[in-house]
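In practice, a research group might receive sequence data for several interacting partners and want a quick structural hypothesis before committing to experiments. The following worked case mirrors that situation: the sequences arrive first, and a predicted assembly follows.
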Amino acid sequence: MSQESQVLVENEHNHDVPDGSGHGYLTSKDGYLKRLRRIEGQVGGLSRMVADERYCIDILTQISATTRALESLALELLDDHLRHCVVRAAREGGVEAETKLSEARDAIARLVRS
Amino acid sequence: MSQESQVLVENEHNHDVPDGSGHGYLTSKDGYLKRLRRIEGQVGGLSRMVADERYCIDILTQISATTRALESLALELLDDHLRHCVVRAAREGGVEAETKLSEARDAIARLVRS
Amino acid sequence: MSQESQVLVENEHNHDVPDGSGHGYLTSKDGYLKRLRRIEGQVGGLSRMVADERYCIDILTQISATTRALESLALELLDDHLRHCVVRAAREGGVEAETKLSEARDAIARLVRS
Amino acid sequence: MSQESQVLVENEHNHDVPDGSGHGYLTSKDGYLKRLRRIEGQVGGLSRMVADERYCIDILTQISATTRALESLALELLDDHLRHCVVRAAREGGVEAETKLSEARDAIARLVRS
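A structural hypothesis for the assembly, expressed as tokens:
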């Protein structure tokens, strides 16, 4: 819940930005949504494979493909985030830059370890 | 396509097994289906987060959680597979045991590297 | 320490095996030692890169190569382990088979998550 | 070899920086060297485990610990790099900022996939 409200505050903050830039990933929002629909389809396919009692190894192959698709999406989102939010904060400096860098470090650690 | 037909042959083969055991994961089929529905919900949640232009870092956190859920599922499926198909093949020995061990090795490598 | 003594017991146990087969990986012991020396050299190279104040990105590239070399070694050791210790235990059945399968599952999970 | 020369050029470039800041990681150079010596010791320990024919699962546990130590080091180096080189380039802007961001993206992808 506290994460939820932090996000809303964040969004409001961004909507206040004069140039309307908001979150970096918006530039390719449709591309991200398209890829997420494909990943949702892959997970639906996994359910059908289990329901049809398909061979374990084939299900594992499909899980690896789905995980890789999620990882690629995460890497692209992170790149967008560094190029927009982090670069903007770096230019402004101060506490905001420090916060953005710490957040990016933690998000990268979660990706590497997941 | 050739992978498709290999799976069907595999299924037929398993249905021939006198004790009707089939694939090991069947024992917990409902559990797997439940977890996959939850993962499908997580991916749907990711689409809504992007559509609502939520903060990148929160989307990345949710992607890491989804990837971890898929990995846990894969580890459990693999454990079932080792305990049933691989152990059965190991007892029978011969070409079938060799095939099952090579398949397991390749599936583990894909999981470690994805 | 308790892990240490468990290993010694394990070794003694294996030396009791009539056919003297011991751990599966012994068949390629020299190969493993050669690869570990190369990995030790890669880590030594990393120390020299830091001492010489080389560019971060190049150090990170070298760390990724070292991690991949360790992972490949682990995957081969695990394959040897499944083909020898686990298959042997599967044929014997009982508590020993159960123990070996649980150990393998945990080792695979550590590899996937590290 | 071409990578080698690129690094030397990079180093020269950094030595030209008026404030003598160089690579960000230099601030904790001793800390990195100490950790790398410990990792080199872990790899040496792995060689002794194989030479002593220790149990596979214990060797795999030690490999996972070594991989995690390398990953933690990489994450800290990357954080230093983002905080120093990338932030500096972001402030200067232009081609240099673009280069640094692309390099960081590729290094993160290698870490996530290794």
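Before designing any experiment, note the following. Chain A touches chain B through 52 residues (CB under 8 Å). DSSP finds four helices and no strands in chain A.
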